[in-house]
From TrEMBL:
It is a multi-pass membrane protein. Residues 16-478 form the Major facilitator superfamily (MFS) profile domain. InterPro entries: EmrB-like, MFS, MFS_dom, MFS_trans_sf. The keyword Phosphoprotein does not apply. This is MFS transporter. The keyword Transmembrane helix applies. Pfam families: MFS_1. The chain crosses the membrane at residues 15-38, 53-70, 82-101, 107-130, 142-167, 173-190, 202-221, 233-252, 273-296, 302-325, 337-356, 362-382, 455-474. Gene3D superfamilies: MFS general substrate transporter like domains, Multidrug resistance protein D. Keywords: Antibiotic resistance, Cell membrane, Membrane, Transmembrane, Transmembrane helix, Transport. It is found in: Cell membrane.
Length: 496
């Protein structure tokens, strides 16, 4: 059993949600907004096709590999302090990237963004966790946070398209400076840091080194899979090394007195299932963003801005599910009653994209899938973000927050690499099977869509399988009596 005694509710906590949400939005926006700006940046800075992926990889490598360290630093130094340092650093790195005179400076700025995002993301989520302890309000707060996590990427596509088309690609980075400045203005309404006890003043150096090296290896291996193929030594080597290092990391964490990641945080079935749900949901979400972006721009001829606008219904569906449905049900039903069906709804939406062809209309071929995926993601992300930090000790909120963010990053990296490989292979097979046809746009479009369809099928199967797994594994704390419905703090029991 794990219980926490909630602190007295801060009357400013609702206002703090605005600033914490802005910081989270900035992080999520940066995942997709730079993707839209990348072609223009590539032309402007003279970046080769082979090197352009590093603008994305530099960020994901730093972000994904340093999250556990960032979460522990937030626990040790104070969540508000870590939040403000992360915001400031992210803004400075964004300004540096926007002003980059060459590719090297842009790459360094993107890596620096990832470093500070790894500190900011877990600090933001843990601040939310300690600010909202009463079940009904906590449900609403995490519904907002989950909606941002699930729908912010689509907003990034719209904003990136608008800024790139009407201003300049550099504004896709400069915009973070303004968002960070507004978010930092909320420092006075954020919960104050509590002094660290002696047992919190130690950092698990072996655990840090093992975790960082392992996650760098896994994220790097996944990022190289698209260009090199899964059987390449440049991919197999890092992935195997990452697996070995993660195994050693677990063995070390079982023995050290003050582990970087206390295994009880992950081994609790509710929290562990929440991490799994977020990781797998990210696979489906990134798959949809990636291949629908290609489909709408390359096959249908949409502009970058129109492509972003075309994703807005998905964001609306996320808001309805997270804010309108999940926020009301989180205090009343077990989380698996939302997460498992949410994954299944998202799987259905992705499956609707399998029969897509070059002549499919947006209204009939894309929109229904977007609405289902968005609704499913809203049901998944709000309770998963809530229960990712549920029941942990106050001094472990940062590392629990970092763990769910790590799951999101690893899920995105693995999913993108896997689905892109499936799509590329199916496209190549289609071209080989129709080499007797004259080359041209029709053959190219048919081959691309064939690849997208295969990738959508794999993503749908992954989401549906995860739905069954979460339904079976998620061991859920149940509110006793009418406590949750009446807005009082229930007693929760965890059987890990």
């Amino acid at each position: 059993m794990s219980t926490d005694t909630p602190r007295a509710a801060d009357p400013r906590r609702r206002l703090s949600l605005v600033f914490i949400g802005l910081a989270q939005l900035m992080i999520v926006l940066d995942i997709t907004i730079v993707n839209i700006a990348l072609p223009s940046a590539q032309r402007d800075l003279g970046v080769s096709d082979g090197d352009r992926q590093w603008v994305i990889t530099a960020y994901t490598l730093a972000f994904g590999s340093l999250l556990l360290l960032g979460g522990r630093i937030a626990d040790l130094t104070g969540r508000r302090r870590a939040f403000l340092i992360g915001l400031t650093g992210f803004a400075v790195a964004s300004a540096l990237g926007g002003a980059a005179p060459d590719f090297g400076v842009l790459l360094a700025a993107r890596a620096l963004q990832g470093v500070f995002a790894a500190l900011l993301a877990p600090a933001a989520l843990s601040l939310l966790s300690v600010s909202f302890t009463e079940p009904a309000e906590r449900a609403k707060a995490f519904a907002v946070f989950g909606a941002i996590a699930a729908g912010g990427g689509a907003i990034g596509l719209v904003l990136g398209g608008v800024l790139t088309e009407y201003l300049d690609w550099r504004w896709c980075l400069y915009v973070n400076v303004f968002i960070a400045a507004v978010a930092a203005a909320g420092r006075y309404v954020l919960p104050a840091d509590t002094p660290a006890g002696r047992d919190r003043a130690r950092l698990d150096i072996p655990g840090v080194l093992l975790a960082v090296c392992a996650l760098v290896a896994v994220v790097y291996g996944c990022s190289e899979a698209e260009a090199e193929g899964w059987d390449s030594p440049a991919v197999v080597g890092p992935l195997v090394a990452g697996g070995v290092l993660l195994t050693v990391f677990v063995l070390v964490e079982r023995r050290v007195a003050h582990p970087l990641l206390p295994l009880r945080v992950v081994l609790d079935r509710t929290r562990g299932s929440a991490y799994l749900a977020v990781a797998v949901a990210t696979v489906g979400m990134f798959g949809m963003f990636l291949f629908l972006t290609y489909y709408m721009q390359l096959v249908k001829g949409y502009s970058a801005m129109l492509t972003g606008v075309a994703f807005l219904p998905m964001t609306a569906a996320v808001l309805v599910a997270a804010g309108g449905v999940a926020a009301r049900l989180i205090p009343r039903v077990p989380p698996r009653a939302l997460v498992a069906p949410g994954l299944l709804v998202a799987a259905t939406g992705v499956a609707l994209l399998v029969p897509l062809d070059p002549d499919s209309s947006y209204a009939a071929g894309v929109l229904p899938a977007e609405l289902l995926v968005g609704f499913g993601m809203g049901l998944v992300m709000a309770p998963s973000m809530n229960y990712a930090t549920h029941g942990v000790r106050a001094q472990e909120a940062g590392i629990a927050s970092a763990t769910v963010n790590t799951g999101q990053q690893i899920g995105g990296s693995l999913g993108t690499a896997l689905l892109n490989t499936v799509a590329a292979s199916a496209t190549a097979d289609h071209l080989a099977a129709h080499r007797d046809r004259p080359p041209g746009p029709d053959l190219r479009d048919a081959a691309l869509v064939e690849g997208f369809s295969d990738a959508f099928l794999v993503a749908a199967v992954i989401l549906a399988s995860a739905s069954l797994l979460v339904a079976a594994l998620m061991n859920t704390p149940r509110p006793k009596g009418r406590a949750a419905a009446e807005g009082t703090e229930p007693t929760m029991t965890h059987i890990g």
